[in-house]
Amino acid sequence: MIIIILIIGILLGAFTGWGFLTIADRHSRALLVTTSTFGALGAVAANQLLSWGLTVWGISILPVLAGSIVLPLVSIYGFYFGKNYFKKLRAGN
Asked: What highest taxon heads this organism's lineage (predicted)?
């Protein structure tokens, strides 16, 4: 079951990152890897912590979908926050 959850998380995390990059008109392979990783982590964590909604093969579908979309969005925010912070730090402002 956990392999299926990881695959769902990786795919939805990558799709979330791709959607953000498309909307923001940016290109970053590092961000796609980051969102895929955090998508998998979010899906597994949500499935382990929450057990509500539709269940298929022991997988709580709604928490897995929410975790694999919300955590990559948080990682996107952190990615660009850190990037801008270090850019300002290098500039000396």
From this structure: Bacteria
For 65, other C-beta atoms within 10 Å of its C-beta total 18
Per-residue tokens: 44: 């597994």
Whole-prediction pTM value? 0.77
Distance between CA 91 and CA 93 in Å, rounded?
6
SS (H, E, C) 36-62: HHHHHHHHHHHHHHCCCCCEECCEEHH
In order of 12, 31, 49, 53, 76, the CA distances from 20 in angstroms are 12, 10, 27, 27, 8
Q: Can you give the pLDDT of all 93 residues of the chain as single tens digits?
A: 788 888 888 998 898 888 888 888 888 888 888 888 999 988 888 888 877 777 788 777 788 888 888 888 888 888 888 888 888 888 875
